[in-house]
Amino acid sequence: MDRDQLIDLTRRAVKLARDNTTDLAPSQRTVTADAYTSVERHAQDSAMLMASPQLVGYVSELPRPGTFCTKTVMGRSILLTRAADGLVRAFDNVCLHRQSRITDGCGSARRLACPYHSWTYDLTGNLAGLPGAEGFPETTTGDARLSEMPAAECAGFLWISLDRDRTLDIPAFLGPLAAELDSWGIGRWSPLGEKVLDCPINWKLAIDTFAENYHFATVHKTTFATIARSNCTVFDSFGPHHRLVFPLNGILDLENTPEHEWEPLQNMVVIYALFPNIVLSCTIANGELFRVYPGDVPGRSITVHQNSTPLDVSDESMAAGAAAVFDYAHSTVRDEDYALVEALQANLASGVREHLVFGRNEPGLHHRHETWEAAVKFGAGRR
After folding, report:
1. Same domain for 206 and 319?
2. Which of 13, 81, 281, 362 is the most exposed place for a label (fewest CB within 10 A)?
């Protein structure tokens, strides 16, 4: 994001903070409780995700040719590689023999050997060798290779399509956010691993917790609210995606500072909501990625939380500091946001009330649900 844009966002944030207000939607919005509990809607949501481009990680997880990493996406184990030609590829992480996972985690290798019977694959997906080859004449005489799916790198992130017949055009999908996200550089920072939350909450309810800061003063009284203002958000939408700016508590100090001395990134957190299931939280020192997936039933979801840092993690003290920040953010989401909405999910499932309400001061929630509902209706119309 260039400085002129950052200054403009900062001006907007300062004005909202000074006026003790926030960007507002045109009106309140009601959402039916069964959007979070219906088996039919759960199936529609899952189909929507299966049909959508999936951001699955940072490009820094495949930092050079000869590297690989694995991801779980919608219950499927995915193997991503960067072979000698430098291209990113994605495969089902499923051996051609007995369907064992071929590998786990991230690393460097010329070839990957299945841990079950040592069938070996190169990083372009070709079967490179197997013990007792005489037992598999049809396999060894054919062009055996792993099942591949579309893959791309864009804006510093790794992307796949679970639909093998789709063409990935991520710049078109992201629109103006492609260059903006790339400018942060967070996808090229050092990755700090993954933490997984398997929770009894609907996947949309999980994402809802990131779509407003109205709750900071109560839910995060001793954590995030000590850092950022509550109920004060700059909102902008970009097609099916949106951006939220959460001003930090000291932002009004800028009123006494000339604009040319402003350091915008010291005074805000920027949240990106990427359709349909991605949340990015960006600061000058952190690049958090939340990948949120429907579980096997409406009242269950899987959140994969990642973080990246611009710090030199080869320095032990810097690595420890970055890990501590990651732990703090993760525990806050787990123990405050998700723990609270577990009870909310139970209330929704009880059927006591048919609707819940989004306020004008929660435009991120409005936008998320509008885009989801439009996509679900479009998908239903195509079937």
Report:
1. yes
2. 281
